[in-house]
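Internal ticket - ligand job 512, copper (II) ion:
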Amino acid sequence: MDGENISRRDWFRIAGLGSVSLVLSACVPKQFFKGEENLIEPESLISPDLEISLRAVPDQIQIFPEKKTSVWRYQGEVLTGPDDTLLDIPGSYLGPIIQANQGERIRVHFLNDLPEPSIIHWHGLHVPPAADGHPRLVIDPGDTYIYDFKVKDRAGTYWYHPHPHGRTGPQVYGGLAGLFLIHSKEETELGLPEGEFDIPLVIQDRDFNEENQLVYGTGHMMDRMVGFLGSQIMINGMPDYELPVSRRPYRLRLLNGSNSRIYKLAWEDGTPLTVLGTDGGLLEAPIQKEYVTLAPAQRIEIWADFSQDQPGSIKNLISLPFDGYGGQADFLVTRIKVGMEAGDSAPLRDQLVRLTPHNIEDAVNRNSPRSFLLNLAPGMVWTINGRTFEMEEVAQDEVVQLNDLEIWEFENRVGMGMGMMGGMSVPHPIHLHGLQFQILERKIPASNRDGWNTLSEGFVDEGWHDTVLVYPGEKVKILVKFDDFTGLYLFHCHNLEHEDMGMMRNYRVDPA
Ligand code: C2O
Ligand code: CU
Ligand code: CU
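stdout (structure tokens):
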């Protein structure tokens, strides 16, 4: 920030000027494995249905021709359970896809073979605090952490990633992330496309240097304020990805695994997207959207029917322009190539599942929601109610009671007279750990409505969510219930650069 007049346009990281690049290095000495284990909960005494190990380790991957790319990644092994408990994505830095059935008990041995502390968080899962991957639980290089939990969540698309405070952005960026798919009998009976016709697409953006090495260009203050935006779109860890499909319906599971980039996803030919599910599993009924706004950490499942497409034709999934960082132009997300083979599947149903939503009438604070202000504080820090993250601290307004149903309201306030920074407006994808919530209401002031209108039709607010995008100026109300577990959890902005800066707080569930 050199005193010059910085307009909003200049904030776009088109050039990334002045960025100090950090090249992740894989040259670390082999760590001695100490085999230390953390205290585990009594639940773990029951033998698990699934037992796996995940090792975080520096590695080299062939992403581009010639020079390999240094990455950090999870390597998995099934210790107990069916072979398909873990599915490797060939040629990808992403961790194995973990597959579990609702109701199963899982034990995960996490081995940290990185040159720095880390811990795994199961994003979207309703697990006890000891299994949630809070940054206070980080383990040192060479150590092991054992997770024991029951898979309680609905069938759906969840994921896992590191959560060490201040280092989540670079660790995820380096390649540490993977999908966690939950299946259930109820869902299988719907006859949705499965197996090779059920395809996960993890969308991320990266920058590489001429040596094919990852560049995490967030050294510049401006870059951190906005978050990292890369110029290379990666699908399942691969650039220029092309998905071959048969002429039949598919179930596509999309995860925005990017640090900060928001996608406004659409079919290039203008066909609407048919949305089946969100963060917390299937919707009651499929819905049609011209485009879908997918913020960091969010998932969306779509029904994509290629049976009417010409053999050999190409269908592009693109991201449309919108008013906000990274939204200045449209770009290709993935190419889909329609093959010769045709196939059949059960037709799409009008009704998918029955949801049992919370009843707003039961909210303990129906008349005065718990409110959280998302604001830029002096010193250029993003804050939640004026605070940044402190490892163990919980403020009075961050304590809730077990079994309570509450309304939480997040307000992304802009333009509060902070001099040059007053006009700084960035959307914040707000995420709560340990549960799924409902989105109740959005309010946008007239002053921000035009920008908001460029994304708002793409919000899928139906169903269950663990992350919600709060646009500049917007107030979003959610309905959230604190079931089953007491203890310390997190809520934070899932723009990982914001999170690392401290736009994260604890909330504590106290016994009723
Ligand atoms: Cu993906 Cu703390 O979250
Ligand atoms: Cu999470
Ligand atoms: Cu944010």
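Auto-summary: The pocket of CU-O-CU linkage (ligand 1) is lined by residues 121, 123, 161, 163, 297, 431, 433, 490, 492, 494 (CB under 6 Å). Confidence is low (pLDDT under 50) at residues 1-41, 417-422.
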